[in-house]
Design a protein that fits this description.
By secondary structure, the protein is mostly helical. The chain is built from eleven helices and no strands. Helix 3 packs across helix 5 and helix 7 packs across helix 10. The protein is globular and about 50 Å long. About 23% of the residues have low confidence.
Length: 248
């Protein structure tokens, strides 16, 4: 692998290899075995001199990125966006700040920028789901077959609520809910101050309360009821002191 080559092959969470657009070769078994226990930041730094070592990061994090993007855009788009996320990360790895909380926010931040290119498609799909209750993207909101009936029942108000959010608020909310990021990690992923993260999440929570209507999107545990709870769309506690005037 040369410094201009993309990361190596891997498999997404569903076990299907999606290598063609994101590989130029496969890391040697000895490298994989040697690097498995190394921290992400060490691997990024090492890959500057030995580019093939970036392959371990690809194998380690691609399934998580793919799952997150699939929830946002569907599985087909997730294949391309995940591949491009790692191609971009590989090319700009020299700019990675090892002082960040970890490599996951960096990768999700790249993915968020790529998801933004699909903003119209995402909002269109959410609005369609809100009107009809049918959309394949919503099938990725829960991996539990037992939760699917409940998820389908409440997915329409959830989709309507998500579609009504600004792009910035939706990024912050779904990184919190679906990537399980802390406020600091969201700030690093989106390259915004923590105070702006708090503002966006607070604003999103208020809007979701209104838009989701009779489904009461927030219960005692601050989870969106029904499908949202099953889908893991937990929302942080409302913070009345946070200014709503921060930029979206």
């Amino acid at each position: 692998m040369t410094d201009s080559d993309p990361p190596c092959r891997s498999s997404w969470g569903n076990g299907t290899t999606r290598a063609d657009t994101a590989r130029a070769g496969t890391a040697q078994p000895g490298i994989v075995q040697r690097d498995t226990a190394l921290p992400d930041a060490v691997l990024v730094a090492a890959s500057l001199d030995e580019p093939e070592r970036f392959a371990v990061l690809f194998d380690r994090h691609a399934p998580t990125i793919h799952q997150y993007v699939a929830r946002r855009l569907g599985r087909d788009a997730a294949d391309d966006v995940t591949a491009e996320t790692f191609l971009t990360a590989f090319r700009i790895r020299a700019r990675y700040d090892s002082g960040l909380a970890g490599v996951r926010p960096w990768l999700h931040g790249i993915a968020a920028k790529l998801i933004s290119r699909h903003r119209r498609e995402e909002v269109k799909a959410l609005k369609l789901l809100a009107r009809t209750g049918r959309d394949p993207v919503a099938e990725t909101w829960t991996d539990s077959a037992d939760d699917r009936v409940t998820a389908q029942a409440a997915s329409r108000p959830l989709a309507k609520a998500l579609a009504a959010l600004s792009e910035g608020d939706r990024h912050a909310l779904l990184l919190f809910a679906w990537a399980d990021f802390s406020y600091q990690e969201i700030a690093e992923a989106l390259d915004i101050p923590v105070g702006t993260v708090r503002s966006r999440l607070n604003r999103a929570r208020r809007k979701l309360r209104v838009t989701a209507g009779p489904y009461r999107p927030f219960g005692e545990s601050d989870e969106i009821a029904g499908a949202a709870g099953a889908a893991g769309t937990a929302v942080p506690p409302l913070e009345p002191h946070v200014s709503e005037g921060d930029p979206a």
